[in-house]
Amino acid sequence: MNYAQDIIKALIRTEKSTQYEPQGKYLFLVNSGANKIQIKRAVEEVYKVKVSEVNTFISAGKLKRVRYHLGRTPDFKKAVVTLKEGQKITVA
Fold it and tell me: Which end of the chain is more exposed for a tag (fewer CB within 10 A), N or C?
């Protein structure tokens, strides 16, 4: 994981995540092996902003059924990134 594009998979834009944008918080889907320092550097490099705080959590995959077989969706890691005052991520 040397590149920022390998660490940050997507900026999550849901109704719930957009409620935090006025507070300067953005939600990202990140690589499950990335730590907070790597996530902070990747966001600063890709979006050209200053990050003050990174909180991460792992969302467990759901149990799914298809006819008689049980399956599971994969676990994934999310990061809530708080930007410094006056910073903003613009999405085209």
Answer: C
Residue 2: predicted pLDDT: 73
Q: Are 54 and 23 in contact (CB under 8 A)?
A: no
> pTM here?
0.89
CA dist 47 and 68 (Å) reads 45
- Mean pLDDT, rounded, for 24-49: 96
φ, ψ of residue 23 in degrees (nearest 5): -85, -5
- The separation between the first and the last C-alpha atoms of the chain, rounded to the nearest angstrom, is 26
DSSP state of 33: T
User: Longest Cα pair distance anywhere in the chain, in angstroms?
Assistant: 53
Q: CA–CA separation, 28 vs 82, rounded Å?
A: 11
Question: Comparing C-alpha atoms, which of 90, 76, 88, 92 is closest to residue 8?
Answer: 76
CA distances from 89 to 45, 46, 78 (A): 12, 10, 17
